[in-house]
Write a structure and sequence with these properties.
heterodimer, A: 432 residues, alpha/beta, TIM Barrel, 8-stranded parallel β-sheet, 17 helices, globular, B: 339 residues, alpha+beta, BirA Bifunctional Protein, domain 2, 8-stranded mixed β-sheet, 11 helices, 11 strands, 18% strand
């Protein structure tokens, strides 16, 4: 037992590091596979300070010109049920301004929960993103048995429940996925043709993620699985435990020109697929979004620092990256589809993001928790509850579609949120 | 419900698919076409031999192959537990081969799992052969002259030596000779896009000319022409960016007239290591899988230009065939399960 003590210092954490070393840069290894990570926030057991979105209030006006327009259109007083939530998201038609964000290849996402999310998202008719690293880790599912965890297994589960004209699938490809040519594989595969032919296939370029801006995806693998992927990924024994390895993807190097040209190449090589881009909450997020839209991205997703389901170093979760609200304020009025993700689970945060300029919001941890609660209807009920809240909130603001929301609806820190910035420009084919 | 069962496309849209091998290989038409193809390959080899080219036997598999093939999937090969690829084109090997000889040629087999929509273009095969050429120190203009020379020579050889075969196929010989006295025209990509858009075809100015657009240009043309200066973002990292026109690549395609479309793709190559690795990222590639090639370029590879000439496509043009599969003994139309 040491004789030293330091009551005004995080003594216990220092002693933990002195005993366990690099394992302390991560949450306890025993929580992997059973815990969803990401930044804490209001409602969490140990909440971090809320962001602009949490702090802002939705403030209905008293005089409502748009309600009068709706009254004239309907011939009766409008109610919350008259809010039309159906929205175009990244080239897809969604029944509400919602989509399911990517989970990647972590153990939780690759379990039956990932399949349950696919089925329910398909049934709901909301777009779904399938994360990176699925093919190198779980396979595509074309030759041999189509396992449920494979990429094709997830696409099938979604498509089997999907109604005509609704939803769509966006498929990510990481730097390591590029070796497996995930996009080329999907684009040339017979099973993807119905989605492609109905304009419901997108490819999402993942530039970064909210939970760990600036570094790549991470999972924990047992030794044998780590050995199997060691040629494609960095594997590192950091847990002080010979049986578990940290598997890291590279974050990929981006400059303005690299992002611009990768989007051009996606448009060139996959002309019938939509192009989505996912950005981490970097300090230059406005500039990056501007480059993506001008290069021809159909949709840009900003993953706020509150985002993330997967394994991440504790140092990143509450300390790295811009909060989502600040990202949305930095971007200002988007020229094309802007999507927002980061701690979404109920209607108010969603409606505030829409007022800040987002076209739709993504469900990550909430979707996984909902299907964990009920694999058949959990996500459906969660979404139905959000839809009701969104209808009531939007109608209270005297508006009847999400696209009508604006900064005038938000009040924060003694003032209405204003937008002094110039609007960004959209796609320009002449800029090469 | 969306059908994601993966059913293969049939010939229900009126396309004629290849018959069974016993029928195809015993057909007099097939035999005549393959004899013409034999003469094309033989004439091209002679022409290049006279110009000092060394024919090398091409690699078939490797850790990397040409990624710049729009929408097509590479075929993976399990090479002692490592992911290798069948060649979509041996482009990096061509450049490396210049360490041995200044002028090289392969007659190379290539496999590309093309997007299924290409089965309706009549000119895509999942397995095909190229005359693959690379010349150290050559500029794009010099390599275009060579391409013009090879194509002119083999067309002349077939016209002068195989009149009976062309007649048996009903090929109008004036379609092969009317343009021989004129040099091939040069049309920059931006000009072709303008033409297409003015004619009502929605062509993306930032992308390769799409297949329908290429056919329109080919039908309008009164002779073969070079389509030059593709925009950056439409071709692979090896194609050199024009230092005088940022955003424009020093590339070219050779388009044959009569709706037959592209038979050659080529350009001036990038050989400068920092530019190469940056361009790899711009094309979404993972530089680590190009380890051996990047090491080679750090040591220095000669500047060069080159091209690939599709032999089945050139045969289709010379013989006047409706479908490119008619110019293959064992045709593989994209998405169609074939021997």
């Amino acid at each position: 037992m040491s004789r030293l003590s330091a009551p005004h210092f995080p003594e216990r954490a220092v002693r933990d590091r002195a005993r366990k070393g690099t394992a302390c840069a991560f949450p306890p290894i025993t929580s992997y596979g059973t815990t969803l990570f990401g930044a804490s926030g209001p409602g969490a057991a140990h909440p971090a300070p809320g962001d602009l979105i949490d702090a802002a209030r939705l403030v209905p006006p008293i005089f409502m010109d748009l309600r009068l327009e709706k009254l004239i259109e309907l011939g009766r007083e409008p109610m919350y049920g008259d809010v039309e939530l159906s929205t175009e998201i990244g080239g897809f038609t969604a029944r509400a301004p919602l989509f399911v964000s990517a989970f990647g290849s972590t153990q939780i996402a690759c379990s039956d929960l990932g399949m349950a999310v696919s089925r329910q998202a398909g049934r709901l008719g909301i777009p779904m993103v399938i994360g990176e690293n699925i093919v190198p880790v779980n396979g595509y599912g074309r030759i041999g048995a189509c396992t449920p965890l494979s990429l094709l297994g997830r696409v099938r589960a979604y498509g089997e429940e999907l109604e005509d004209g609704l939803g769509g699938v966006a498929i990510q490809q990481s730097t390591e996925d590029a070796d497996a040519e995930v996009w080329n594989l999907v684009y040339s595969d017979p099973s993807a043709q119905p989605l492609l032919n109905s304009g419901r296939l997108a490819f999402e370029l993942k530039v970064g993620q909210g939970a760990k801006p600036g570094i790549g995806g991470m999972t924990v693998l047992p030794r044998t699985a780590a050995a199997a992927v060691s040629e494609q990924y960095t594997t590192d024994q950091v847990f002080g435990d010979a049986a578990s390895y940290l598997r890291s993807s590279s974050p990929g190097t981006y400059t303005e020109e690299i992002l611009r040209q990768q989007i051009h190449l996606m448009r060139n090589n996959f002309p019938r697929a939509r192009v989505w881009v996912k950005l981490h909450p970097g300090r230059d997020v406005r500039r990056a979004a501007a480059v993506a839209w001008r290069a021809g991205a159909h949709s840009v997703t900003v993953d706020g620092a509150e985002g993330g389901t997967g394994w991440a170093p504790t140092s990143f979760m509450d300390h790295v990256g811009l909060p989502l609200g600040e990202c949305l304020r930095a971007i200002g009025r988007p020229p094309s589809c802007l999507l927002a993700t980061g701690r979404m689970w109920e209607g108010t945060r969603a409606v505030k993001c829409l007022a800040l300029g987002a076209r739709g919001v993504g469900l990550g941890r909430a979707a996984l928790l909902a299907v964990d609660e009920d694999p058949d209807f959990g996500l459906q009920r969660l979404v139905e509850c959000m839809e009701l809240e969104m209808r009531m909130l939007i109608s209270a603001l005297g508006k009847y579609e999400p696209g009508a929301l604006g900064l005038e609806d938000l009040y924060e820190g003694g003032a209405y949120v204003d937008d002094p910035r110039e609007a960004l420009a959209g796609y320009d084919a002449s800029l090469r | 419900m969306v059908d994601v069962s993966g059913a293969m496309p049939g010939g229900a849209d009126g396309r004629v698919l290849p018959p069974q091998p016993w029928e195809h290989l015993t057909s007099e038409t097939t035999r005549t076409v393959l004899r013409i193809q034999h003469h094309i390959v033989r004439s091209a080899r002679r022409y290049l031999d006279d110009q000092g080219f060394v024919e090398l036997l091409p690699p078939v598999i490797g850790p990397v192959t040409d990624p710049g093939i729009r929408g097509a999937k590479q075929v993976d090969v399990d090479y002692y537990g490592h992911r290798y690829k069948l060649m979509t084109s041996a482009f990096v090997y061509k450049q490396a081969s210049l360490l041995a000889f200044d002028k090289i040629v392969y007659v190379a087999p290539n496999v590309r799992l093309e997007p299924l929509e290409t089965c309706s273009t009549n000119r895509h095969l999942a397995e095909f052969h190229q005359l693959d050429i690379e010349v150290a120190g050559a500029t794009r203009e010099q390599i275009m002259e060579l391409a013009e020379g090879v194509v002119g020579h083999v067309v002349d050889a077939v016209v002068s030596d195989m009149g009976d075969e062309l007649a048996a196929l009903g090929r109008d010989v004036t379609a092969l000779s009317s343009w021989r006295s004129r040099p091939f025209a040069r049309v920059p990509h931006a000009e072709a896009v303008r033409d297409l858009v003015e004619g009502g075809h929605m062509q993306d100015g930032g992308a390769e000319i799409d297949w329908a657009g290429e056919e329109i240009l080919s039908i309008k043309a009164d002779g073969p022409f070079f389509l030059t200066d593709y925009p950056k973002g439409s071709r692979c990292f090896l194609e050199k960016e024009d230092p005088d026109q940022p955003g424009v690549l020093r590339t070219f395609d050779l388009i044959m007239p009569g709706g037959y479309g592209e038979v050659i793709s080529g350009g001036e190559r990038e050989a400068h290591y920092p530019t190469l690795i940056t361009r790899m990222r711009e094309t979404g590639e993972n530089p680590s899988k190009y380890g051996w090639y990047l090491q080679l370029s750090r040591h220095g590879v000669p500047s060069s230009s080159g091209f690939g000439l599709g032999l089945q496509r050139l045969t289709r043009f010379v013989a006047g065939l409706e479908y490119v599969w008619q110019a293959a003994a064992f045709p593989k139309v994209p998405g169609v399960v074939s021997p």
